[in-house]
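FAQ

Q: What does a record look like?
A: Structure on top, sequence underneath. For example:
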């Protein structure tokens, strides 16, 4: 094995996998010097005919001192292709043993030659020291090519998804679904999000790759298939399921031992390990009858997969553009393709180490008349007259304490045949950048220069806590950044309005001078700016706090109020 192969070592053992095959190599020797040792190495989970990329082999190393003299500070080396991975210093009393546990995860296919050597520097007085070692050769194969539709029905589907997720893509998908309830990501976690979330979230550190498929059918059935590659096995899935106390039983799937679990009245769960993959199937039926075990006993034609492939290949130019639909220099964390009727969508998941995680979606739909197609935007509207881009962005904050320093934004633009969408899960300091980054990405895609317009949410309001002071929203000047409101005097006496303050955070100081007197029943228009917080507002509608200083009958008074506004950006 070449020296440039990367080495993945893990100090702690997270999972112990037991397989029936047991390999042991024991070397015994009778030294003529002061020491008598036995050296052995075995790998209880090693299968010489079924070790695949990103599998992990666990090694048990035993150094036994069978002589009458104690061994102190002896070096023991663990090697791969004669290159040291790790050294240990061991001290062993007479007639006792030292035990070492190691593991190795394979990042490439090929042949791996492991060895353990006691006293590799030949410091101690041991006869025949050249044979104080044990060896184990491991042949690592590439996993089989995934065939996601092989064991699921392919007729009468309402929608179907195929997806590839890397570990952080799995976490992002579960975050979008569980914490933010984003509907587009629910199929990536299957019909039962509880157990799927545990698999995607809890086991993601052990995974290298997850290929999956989700299909729903006209009779209400839903099927979810997941092919996992990594340092896990079906035994790990069984261990995870045991924490839920689901009724389960084993069955045979080809040459593999499979597991069946009944999640609830309508949902069943099956898993087995085969040819480098841990394969999981969740079968949901709206009525009793049919389950994943019976489904796995059948074979199906890849009808829907062919339709999905044809849909994407017929729009290969747009598909190629979406390959660049990422944030700055971010890295890919997965992708997905969906087919719902005549609509299809391409998902791209990515990560930028500094800013956060992003999910872009480019959806194709039958032509719409964008001149008459208008939608209400409950958040920020961005318009660029030179490029024609019109975009709506909403911001959301999670109620989970660990996510309080992050926000999720959803930016969307709609053209005649495409819907462009970017979800940005970012640090609060990057919230406003996410909006303009989305606008930049949409423009670079160059799909069209004609987009449907957005209408602001009709909830721009102004009010004071004292009901005798009336307030109504009038307008916002995007050039000056000032709001215009109408203030009315509902008292029976005149009042003098001295100043107004507006801010997105408390306390609010009245800093904009007004200095006008209102008789009873009169009103005036006042214009002022609102002070923004150091971080962008993370809500669907901006809410500002107001404070107005006024006097009545010689008394100095103050009135608190609020202003809500659906912000409007012009690029």
């Amino acid at each position: 094995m070449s020296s440039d192969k990367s080495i993945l070592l893990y100090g702690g053992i997270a999972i112990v996998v037991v397989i029936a095959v047991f390999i042991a190599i024991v070397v015994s020797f009778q030294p003529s010097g002061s020491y008598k040792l036995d050296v052995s190495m075995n790998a209880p989970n090693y299968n010489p005919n079924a070790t695949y990329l990103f599998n992990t082999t666990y090694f048990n190393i035993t150094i036994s001192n069978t002589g009458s003299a104690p061994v102190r500070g002896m070096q023991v080396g663990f090697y791969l292709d004669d290159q040291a991975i790790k050294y240990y210093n061991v001290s062993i009393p007479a007639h006792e043993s030292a035990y070492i546990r190691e593991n190795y995860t394979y990042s490439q296919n090929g042949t791996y030659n492991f060895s353990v050597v006691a006293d590799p520097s030949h410091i101690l007085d041991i006869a025949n020291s050249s044979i104080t070692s044990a060896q184990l050769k491991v042949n690592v194969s590439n996993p089989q090519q995934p065939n996601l539709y092989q064991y699921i029905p392919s007729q009468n589907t309402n929608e179907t998804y195929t997806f590839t997720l890397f570990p952080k893509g799995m976490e992002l998908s579960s975050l979008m679904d569980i914490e933010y309830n984003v509907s587009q990501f629910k199929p990536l976690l299957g019909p039962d999000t509880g157990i799927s979330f545990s698999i995607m979230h809890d086991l993601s550190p052990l995974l290298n790759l997850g290929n999956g498929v989700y299909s729903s059918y006209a009779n209400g059935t839903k099927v979810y298939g997941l092919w996992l590659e990594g340092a896990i096995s079906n035994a790990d899935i069984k261990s995870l399921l045991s924490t839920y106390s689901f009724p389960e039983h084993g069955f045979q799937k080809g040459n593999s031992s499979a597991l069946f679990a009944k999640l609830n009245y309508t949902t069943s769960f099956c898993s087995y390990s085969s040819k480098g993959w841990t394969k999981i199937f969740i079968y949901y039926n709206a009525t009793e009858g049919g389950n994943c075990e019976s489904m796995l006993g059948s074979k199906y034609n890849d009808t829907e997969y062919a339709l999905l492939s044809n849909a994407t290949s017929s729009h290969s130019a747009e598909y190629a553009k979406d390959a660049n639909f990422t944030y700055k220099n971010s890295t890919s964390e997965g992708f997905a393709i969906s087919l719902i009727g005549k609509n299809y969508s391409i998902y791209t998941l990515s990560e930028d180490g500094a800013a956060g995680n992003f999910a872009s979606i480019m959806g194709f739909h039958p032509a719409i008349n964008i001149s008459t197609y208008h939608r209400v935007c409950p958040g920020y509207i961005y318009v660029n007259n030179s490029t024609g881009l019109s975009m709506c962005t909403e911001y959301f904050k999670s109620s989970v304490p660990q996510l309080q320093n992050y926000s999720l934004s959803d930016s969307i633009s709609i053209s005649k045949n495409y819907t462009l969408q970017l979800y940005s899960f970012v640090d609060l300091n990057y919230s406003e950048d996410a909006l303009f980054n989305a606008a930049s990405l949409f423009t670079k895609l160059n799909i069209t220069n004609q987009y449907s317009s957005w209408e602001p949410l009709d909830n721009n309001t102004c009010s004071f806590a004292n009901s005798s002071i009336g307030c109504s929203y009038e307008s916002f000047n995007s050039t000056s950044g000032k709001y215009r409101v109408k203030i009315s005097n509902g008292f029976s006496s005149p009042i003098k309005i001295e100043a107004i303050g507006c801010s997105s955070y408390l306390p609010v100081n009245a800093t904009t001078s007004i200095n006008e007197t209102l008789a009873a029943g009169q009103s005036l228009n006042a214009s002022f700016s609102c002070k923004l917080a150091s971080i962008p507002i993370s809500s669907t509608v901006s809410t500002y706090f107001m404070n107005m200083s006024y006097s009545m009958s010689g008394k100095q008074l103050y009135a608190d109020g609020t202003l809500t506004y659906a912000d409007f950006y012009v690029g």
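Q: Is there anything notable about this one?
A: The domain at 157-301 is CATH 3.40.1000 (Protein Transport Mog1p; Chain A).
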